[in-house]
Amino acid sequence: MTELEKRLDAKIPGKDTGIEIRKSVCPICDRGCGIDAYVWDGKIIKIEGSEDHPVNKGYLCPRGISARAHIYKEDRVLYPMKRVGKRGEGKFERISWDEAYRTIAEKLNSIKEQYGAQAVTFYSGHTKWYRTFVQRLAYSFGTPNYATESSCCFTHGYMAGKSTLGYNVGPDMKNAGVFLGWTYCPHRDPRDLKGVLNFKKNGGKLIVVDCRRTQTAEIADLFLQPIPGTDLAIILCMANILIQKGWIDREYIDRYVYGFDKFKEVAAKYTKDNVEAISGVSYELIEKACEMIHENLPLSINKFNGHHINGYNANRALYALAAITGCYDRKGGLSPKPFAFQHMGGGYKTLDREFCEAKRPLSPLPVGCEDFPLWNYYEHEAQSISIPDSVLLEKPYRTRAIFGFGLNYRMWPNSQRMKEALKNLDFFVDSDLFMTDSAKLADIVLPAASTVERSDLKFYPGGLVWYPEPIIEPLGESRSDEQIVCDLANIMDLDDPILRSGVEATYDHILRNLPFKIADAKAPAPIKNSAFKPWVPGEAIEAGLPTPTKKIELSCSVIEEHPEWGLSSVPDYMEAFDPKEAAEYPLVLVAGARHQNRFHSRLVNNPWASTAAGELAAQINPQDAEELGIRNGDTVEISTRCGSITLKASVTEVSRRGTVNVYHDDPKAPANDIIPSDRRDPYTGFPTFKSARCRVRKAGQK
Amino acid sequence: MKRIVFDEKKCAGCNICAIACMDQNDYDPSCGEAPFRMAGRREKDGVFTNFSESCVHCGACIDVCPMECISRDPDTGFVVVDNAECIGCGACRDACPLSAPKIVDGRMRKCDGCNERVKAGYLPACVRACPTKALSFM
């Protein structure tokens, strides 16, 4: 090898090698970490975290580091495709963008004419970057049915924030004395470890509550390991202890809290006598946690993904703990984190919500909203988990077409039912990076571009904003999803001059209240937005919160006004499991812990992430395994009343006794297939991914 | 001379280092060999340990190679391979306590410590990517 060949082989940037470093954002999740892409001959040959990026400061996470294999994965959809075989068979032929757009416009318009616009649902999977555009497209088309994957992931926590505090909030860990980390695991993204290690070094006390014994649990000062789905009982018991012992901030409560007496009454039900039986955590340990909180205030808390029927209320109850100890909008407690754009914080506001609301059809109600009126009140979006009911049972009316952006039927509980629903549609379009099993069910598949092939508007803490330019040509004929939306608004001749004016003009419309234009954000690095206002502790509660009472609502006044909804205005524990199932299904299935090498289903088939992760197995507690005669590496069958999956067993102390953890979205052992779709949180419509009764046995045994 | 040093106490078992290595070396799992670096978390009798393992550049493979493909770079100290003459006999792998040499398409490849990167003033890819500084170059 010549010296130049060696340097090329080692991917050394330079004039001699022609390798150039270009800056973009990671394509895996919405955090928008900066990447340095080593580009040679128009292709990315290596990536690193950008050292000068304000969020990731040189590092990527275990998912982002696999991004190059994601961008160039062999099943990338490169051209618009039309299905020629049966649904799911995977037989497609390449068509032009013109033909794809024409077909979509004709089909959707004809369904609208025949059945009404509500028969068409526009759906967004993850990531979220283009959502405002899709939502506006849905509404301009005339359907109220805009739905997203957040229907079973993010929104329950957001709704908890809205109903208690008016918006999203976040922890101020740096200044906290004690941190209550509910399913808190920064080890999954070790860049976040620095914060918690510094916190501990400075004397902060860390309480971790998680049904899994994670690495973070091992560095905690106190670790509580509840039965999944029951954690609300623990939080209410904590509130009860704090109130009983007088470890609360009475003055703060009197001034800023609404509904304390009602909350106190409900919390009083969770005592020494019942909390251990419900949650599997001893009263003594809960009492100890309360002591630790009381002795180390201020208290900071993270919100968490409670993907079970008590998840929304558990998050509300956590916020209540911050409220009764006087720690919301206080240094070292919780701080207001209203979103700037979509689900991104920023310290100011864009007009994204107004942009969508301006066109939202007010009737009929979106799918799922009749059954979940609180969801409807806060979100006015279709509850995605109800889509199969709409397609298969015409409940409340029939959905006949879906325009999906990154739709994955394996996200749905009882996934096969959603698959069946997709098969029963009159028309299904999916825009995706990859020819997924869901895309294979579509009539038309559109090739979506990844972050490096397009621009992507990112908002960062501290008022920073960035709209990096594409750093490589789109693969094949792939296009940005936002471009697809604007193109279709034109082709369908929608009455929406803004969307029709194109992506950047639409952004300028959404950003028109801010002192910058989208073109300004096309900088080599994130720019500072002068509209940014840093958090001043106390300012928000003093000014009055955006709740109906302007106070922190421990009793939700919206629910109080609607007794017909049959919901408790104060977070109260609902039986996490159906006791009738206990005999046949003695264990609890947790399908939803996030593997460090995956983001939802993303990276499931990524060659590097999969190699690093190894074969994923069902995690079973050693004592349970012994009783069931299961050894490490055995093949086991996990069954619920919805069916069975078969996979390898990993006997591990990670799993709590009585629980089995299975990572979701694995096509070989699709855990969500066996999560019941009919057991849902009446407040949010969320299913029970993290607490379903199950039975485990060695495969082949009766 | 600097070496790639691993501090288990700082390791989060995240395997970023292993994937950064795959990215640097264009790892293709269909080659049938493990990547140069493997990392993660092991459990034995309820005790967990994090690991990040690769060639430690001990040089046990150098003298066993019949084709004299393997040498120690005098500038960096890394054990490097020029596999142009490699016959894929596997003697290097047999001699290696860690099975670090991989035979891909009949020729040996292994971690070279990102020798050329180091010479050009960059960190080895695994060290550069490690967010907890469990891997360092010192």
Q: What can be said about this structure in brief?
A:
Chain A has 702 residues and is an alpha/beta fold.
Annotation, overall tally of beta strands of chain B: 8
CATH topology heading of chain B: Alpha-Beta Plaits
Could you describe the largest sheet of chain B, including whether it forms a barrel?
A: 2 strands, antiparallel
Supply the number of helical segments of chain A: 24
Q: Between the first and last Cα atoms of chain A, what is the distance in angstroms?
A: 62 Å
* Gross CATH architecture of chain B: 2-Layer Sandwich
Structural class computed from helices and strand pairing of chain A:
alpha/beta
N-to-C span of chain B? 8 Å
> H/E element string of chain B?
EHEEEEHEEHHE
Unreliable residue runs of chain B = none
How many structural units, i.e. domains of chain B?
A: 1
Number of spatially distinct domains of chain A: 4
Rg of chain A? 25 Å
Kindly describe this structure.
The complex is a heterodimer of chains A (702) and B (138). Chain A has 702 residues and is of the alpha/beta class. Chain A folds into 4 domains: 69 residues, N-terminal domain of TfIIb; 195 residues, Rossmann fold (3-Layer(aba) Sandwich); 168 residues, 3-Layer(aba) Sandwich (Dimethylsulfoxide Reductase, domain 2); 120 residues, Barwin-like endoglucanases. Helix content of chain A is 29%, strand content 17%. Chain A is built from 24 helices and 29 strands. In chain A, the strands form 8 sheets. In chain A, strands 5-4-19-18-17-6-7 form a 7-stranded mixed beta sheet, covered by helices on one side. Chain A has a 6-stranded mixed beta barrel with strand order 24-28-25-27-26-29. A 4-stranded parallel beta sheet of chain A has the order 11-10-9-13, sandwiched between helices. In chain A, α8 crosses α12 and α8 packs parallel to α13. The longest helix of chain A is centred in the N-terminal third of the chain and has 19 residues. The N and C termini of chain A lie far apart (62 Å). Chain B is 17% helix and 23% strand. In chain B, the strands form 4 sheets. A two-stranded antiparallel sheet of chain B has the order 1-8. The longest helix of chain B is centred in the first third of the chain and has 9 residues. The radius of gyration of chain B is 15 Å and the shape is globular. The N and C termini of chain B lie close together (8 Å). The mean pLDDT of chain B is 97. The chains are: A alpha/beta (702), B alpha+beta (138). The interface between A and B is large, with 42 and 37 residues.
